[in-house]
Amino acid sequence: MSEDGTTLSTTPRLFVGDGLSAGAAITLPAPQSHYLANVMRRQPGDMVRLFNGRDGEWAARVASLAKKAVTLVPERQSAAQEVPPDLWLCAAPLKKGRIDWLAEKACELGVARLLPVVTARTVVDRLNLDRLMAHMVEAAEQCGRTALPDLAEAVPLARLLKDWPRERALIFADETGGEALAATLSLVPAPAAILIGPEGGFTAEERAAIRAHPAAVPVSLGPRILRADTAAIAAVAVWQALNSPG
Question: Region 219-246: what's the mean pLDDT?
Fold first, then answer.
């Protein structure tokens, strides 16, 4: 319970770029200031939760309100900085809306890195990384994460395979079949990555190249044909359930 009578779980939660430490005042940019003052109706003395992806979560008090600038003063750390399991999601870019949803859910599920992969059947040739990061920030604000996934520039599949780190398993969701998902993923701890293809699937040549890679672990996601974004989240959720502590 905070001093103003509210619980921290019900207070607004915001991502900030500033460092967080006790007493170090932070002035929010205009959009966040508007949100706190005019949407959430915060008043001086009210509490807000802040995180920056580096310093954990902090309980901060509203120090002053102005039309376009709200100043907050962090008082104490309310949650430690998380260390997420070292899981990457490598996924072919999807159409707008679907890729936004994928980025949001990947963040909620605790993915450490989102790496777009360009394949022969990828239908999207440009990604708005700022928009994707904004979706991940919003997801982190809502779900309580204190770490944000790293968002990488898109890379061609051939380069991904060529430069793949030797120690990281590459879990390949192959629509043509593979080992049983749960039984296999329970044997593939971090560091690991999940590779998901585009809406049209991988070509035969791409599947052969992936399967030939020494780090590849082909898995089946079951008897049904899943949308690419559904397949990605299903695989991530199963891996996290089997490999995350607690």
Answer: 90
**φ, ψ dihedrals at 184, nearest 5°:** -80, -45
Q: What is the pLDDT of residues 37-59, one digit of tens each?
A: 989 999 999 999 999 999 999 99
Q: Domains of the chain by range and CATH?
A: 8-79 (2.40.240.20), 87-243 (3.40.1280.10)
Provide the token pair at 14: 């915001």
Token pair of 110 as six digits = 């605790």
Contact 121, 197 (CB under 8 A): yes
Run of H or E including 224: none
Note the pLDDT tens digit of each residue in 109-123: 999 999 999 999 998
Spatial neighbors of 41 by CB under 8 A, at least 6 apart, are none
Q: 159 and 174 in contact (C-beta within 8 Å)?
A: no
Name the strand (E) or helix (H) holding 9: none
- Cβ distance 117 to 92 under 8 Å? yes
- The pLDDT value given to residue 79: 96
Distance CA 171, CA 125 (A): 24
